Amino acid sequence: MISNPLLAPVSVLVDYAAIKPEHIEPAITTLINESRQAVEASAQPALAASWEAIVEPLEDATEKLWRAWSVAGHLNAVVNTPELRAAYNQCLQQVTEFSTWVGLHTGLYEQYKRLKHVPEFARLPAVRQRIIDLALRDFRLGGVELQGEQRKRYADISEKQAQASQKFSENVLDAIDQWSLFVNDATRLAGLPDDVVQAAQAAAQTDGKQGWKLVLKMPCYIPVMQYAQDRELRYEMYRAYTTIASEQGAPELDNSALIEQLLALRAEEATLLGYDSYADLRLETRMADNAEQVLDFLRELAAKAKPYAIQDLAQLRQFAADQLNLTDLQPWDIAFASERLRETRYAYSEEEVKQYFTEPQVLAGLFQVIQTLFSVSLRASNASTWHDDAQAYEVVSAQGEVLGTLYIDLYARQGKQSGAWVDSERNRRRHDGFVQTPVVYLTCNFSRAQNGKPALLTHDDVITLFHESGHALHALLSQVDDPGAAAFASVEWDAIELPSQFMENFCWEYKVVHALSAHVDTGEALPRMLYDKLLAARNFQSGMQMLRQIEFSLFDMGIHHQSHGLSINAVLALLEQVRQEVAVLFPPAWNRFPHNFSHLFAGGYGAGYYSYKWAEVLSADAYAAFEENCVSTDGQSTDTLNPVTGKRFLDEILAVGGSRPAAESFKAFRGREPSIDALLRHSGMAAEVQ
């Protein structure tokens, strides 16, 4: 077992290249057994009621397990194979059972209650007091006070939810990976960017076929919808993507029953724990007080955005009819017509801008922003990775101290889940005089390099990369020494997007964009004239975009603010009801958007999707502090890359992680309660629609 890389000490970086599927089950089984023993030992009433006697030994054992499980989960998401999936699923039940067992462990719960009520509690550091308080809350929300059959049923619900969520995710991945469209007529690809055509041709050749292979991965799907002049091709791709993992495809990949099962299980869990709905249960751990407050917030935002969205759509319909001869604008026309309108109105295209954002230059520019704001640098490391696409970086302080390790994996590929995300492999921890540094994954799905040239990113890709870097920095720059108060462990879910959405704002600053850009052929930075056009288009269709996010959020709250589960037909009916309330765009009746909504059913955002807009209020207001404290660069222009304000953001937001409530951290940085004004201004919605 010593040779099993998943059993290496937590203080040592994982040898990813050495991990095989057959390592997972033995490692997880061993570590669960060790963790069970540690739980039982910490639950002994004879122990002193102290942090050192109860919490530290428990952390020593369980952090090994959670690190190994995080590694297994990450590999399952980014290099999925039948063997790895089988190994992961074999352990999923064990891990779920263990986690539920800990949450239901009355003896351990009593120990934490002892810690809370001894006089020494008041002398503990505030962060440890908070960890104990949060642990007691989580025990209660984990069913520890349930008895008899209710207790057994809760454990059963937990296991079934984990399995259903994993299967939902697998179905989406498999449905995307298994679908393809081979095109043999080059005229059908008219309008597509050269790099997309080349990638499609290479994909066909890999399959031993002539022509071009189109797939539903974002680097292919989005350009087809934006640029393909063949309307029927856009329709085929749109229909395939919007019916992923539904009854309209392979029966074994249909997520309908899983959606029903998950909603029923979540509602039953809430009832067992004494809540009216799953939304009420989840909001116990959020900044928002209750579902009504969330719904009021979303509807207030919708009321402000809808006039802009109506105007956006009216202008698009008029343009499509007048300039594109599209008098019956359909959903598969929206992205295509919108890109043509953008080109006409602002005299540039996304494809033109993309030529300036080469991946090496964008990464270098991002790293420079991080160094300027937070006085840390990122340097390439030769640490072992799971795929040639991945690269490790050390995060280094101005004094040369290594603060953490960041793994970046940017390209879409077969066997890799769609989307972009950040996850933590291990947290910062100070123990026995040694500081264990955090390790973080940053994953995206961008187009890879073609024909020996660097990979090209759209400006939206750049924004995505900055967004995910904000999440990564929240973990990497933590100064919290106890993992129980790490950012991803205890920051309220509706505040976790603050650092990520905050970082997006720098993608619109000229100095930053200039540093991020180097034309793929000439090396020239993005010209100021083209930047000005890009900036002018920042709020292009912002009303429609905001309503789309509000639609998703209201749908999420709607299906989870119920006392019972819903049939798939009721889910679709509720979605239509939400659209009638707030939307301006309406998809066809055969659209099956929920079946691919992994955020809700496999990604932890159930009853929490509203957090994107909630946190955007915080992030926009936080960025306004940088706008208010611009530094002069040449006596004329100003620059939001203010190291002084950056240091305050680091100290009051990033470094404190979850050591205090998010509302307190925001007030410490901003000096007041958050205001929605900056979000409306950044979205171009500060004035009334004329």
CATH topology of the domain at 359-535: Neurolysin, domain 3
Q: Strand order, biggest sheet?
A: 3-4-5-9-6
Shape: globular
Helix content: 55-70%
Q: What features would you highlight for this structure?
A:
Neurolysin, domain 3, 27 helices, 11 strands, two-stranded antiparallel sheet, Glutathione S-transferase Yfyf (Class Pi), Chain A, domain 2
Would you write up a description of this structure?
The chain has 690 residues and is α+β, with helices and mostly antiparallel strands. Among the domains are: 5-103 and 105-141, Endopeptidase. Chain P, domain 1 (Glutathione S-transferase Yfyf (Class Pi), Chain A, domain 2), CATH 1.20.1050.40; 179-243, no CATH class; 359-535, Orthogonal Bundle (Neurolysin, domain 3), CATH 1.10.1370.40. It contains 27 helices and eleven strands. It has helices at residues 21-42, 51-78, 82-103, 106-117, 126-141, 148-178, 194-206, 218-227, 231-241, 256-272, 278-282, 291-323, 331-346, 350-354, 359-374, 459-476, 487-490, 498-504, 510-516, 528-536, 542-560, 568-582, 598-601, 611-628, 643-654, 662-670, 677-682, and strands at 181-183, 212-214, 376-381, 390-397, 402-411, 421-426, 429-431, 434-436, 439-446, 631-632, 638-639. Helix 1 (21-42) runs parallel beside helix 3 and helix 16 packs antiparallel against helix 18 (498-504). The longest helix is centred in the middle third of the chain and has 33 residues, at 291-323. The radius of gyration is 25 Å and the shape is globular. The model has no long low-confidence stretch (mean pLDDT 97).
